[in-house]
Amino acid sequence: MRQIRITMPAAAIVLASALVLTFGRPAAEVAFGTPAAAPAVEAETAAGTAGQPGGQPGGQPGDRPGGRIGAPWVSTHLYFGTGRHNGHPPITDDEFNKFVADVITPRFPSGLTLQEGRGQWRDKDGDINREKSWELTVMYPTAEAHRRNADIEYIRARYCALYELESVGRADVRALVDF
Hints:
By secondary structure, this protein is an alpha+beta fold. The protein has 2 domains: about 60 residues, no CATH class; about 100 residues, Alpha-Beta Plaits. The radius of gyration is 19 Å and the shape is elongated.
């Protein structure tokens, strides 16, 4: 199978375009309805009913205003490169899997998704680097965003320090989530 290489900004444009083409309007409107609906989402979070089906204790999916299904969550995507500087060999699958087991899983034991990919980025010296990469996706209720931010930033800083890397990419997306 042939690998497709795409930069992070290009991926964001493709995703946004796909959402607009699929739903006929920006993703924020699809996830949260009209701007007038945003206070209702915030009120559900404050009332502690955001995690309940339909946003109400004992509610059913689709009971939300506008028939939306799911609760407001954040989907965080982290982009881990495996190429290293100064002639060091790339980070192996075993090394990365150990990092996931030791550092990421204890902070997100309820679940996560990993996808293997190919990345490209420009380093601090202006050189273009191409490398195997990993995309980690973790999702959590918006009410936990402040606490989860500390975990996510620890993961990013630890990976950079452990493997002497410049950065780990991060993208946060608001979503309506239902399991």
